[in-house]
Amino acid sequence: MQRVVITGMGVIAPNGNGYENFVNNSLAGKIGIKKISKFDASETGITVAGEIDDFDPKEYVGKKEARRMDLYSQYAVQTASEAVKMAGINEENTKPEDLGVIFGSGIGGLTTIEQQVIRMHDKGPRRVSPFFIPMAIANMAAGNISIRFNAQNISTSIVTACASGTNSIGEAYRQIREGRAQAMITGGSEATVNETAISGFAALTALSQNTDPDRASLPFDQDRNGFVLGEGSGAMVLESLEHAQKRGAKILGEIVGYGTTSDAYHITSPDPDGKGAARAMQMAIDEAGITPDEIGYINAHGTATHANDSGESKAINQVFGSDSSVRVSSTKGMTGHLLGAAGAIEAVITVAGLMKDKFPMNVGCFNQDPECSINLINQDNQSFSTEYAISNSFGFGGHNAVLAFRKWSEN
User: Fold this and answer.
1) Which of 2, 67, 145, 199 is most solvent-facing, going by the fewest CB within 10 Å?
2) pLDDT tens digits along 189-211
3) 4-246: what CATH class?
């Protein structure tokens, strides 16, 4: 089995465009949730979202290419480009057949679907764009990244709702660990701040109706009342340790474990006892060859829904013990919930935290729910050093995915 290291990372998130901006803002507790401006949301009953409002596709994607990509693919290409540039991967140091792509999305090109269905309704079926299907399908983030970087190993897409980004990174890790690839571009992307998605999630009563952006996303708070929809993308370049060292790459961190399970319980609600989530955490820890007390930080899924936060807290207590000192935070109080991209940006901030000995605060928890008996990070305890951290993602359909990361060390 090969060791799998991280050599590049890229992010576009509601609270920061680009890796440096995202990490610095997240560690400072900056909230990127704001009043919805992309469409008139007045009839949906929802007023805020984690919008991306500083994105220009010309810089990374290209003006011509962007016209043939849904926004979620554009976000994916930008973050993959940033990660590849950081890693220094190119055809001179990496064979195309050794480089693969696994890039997920929870929904895919929903903006394109919405636009083209409206056009068909208003103007007839012959006015539908010939690019409708290749823009809308959920594999095209992976497809466009593969084409952009001539990645000729596996190119595939994982769709496991809100676990898509984490499952994608986990499966890319397995490709390298088991010797089927030497380098992978991986992550997740989502662009669903549109009327269709907001209306659909609102109909599920899953979204917060709070009008104050600073008090809308409240992970683990006793007054939490639903998640805030976000958008964006996170990307990583993973390599085998041997490949990275051979080309002299700067190593940012290491993936040492991956656990994935199914609740097999309900289409939208998690198992209230957290059994499946707990098993996924334990699997990742076991694969890392460590014990729970060696984990210093957990990036929680922490959506700010009642069911998720209470179930995840129970799962953490099952694995770590109810009196554990492991520190926990959800970053969704700053970004909202990026669905299929959530796990990808959260993996990035977890690795950055290990590098910087500083981890993001659990923004949005003003009065911690007694049902969520976990050790949340605040401004006073966010700076500390630990060798290991995990990142949790749980999706509609019962999908659970957990990654275990290690601070980089050659030993």
Assistant:
1) 67
2) 999 999 999 999 999 999 999 99
3) alpha beta
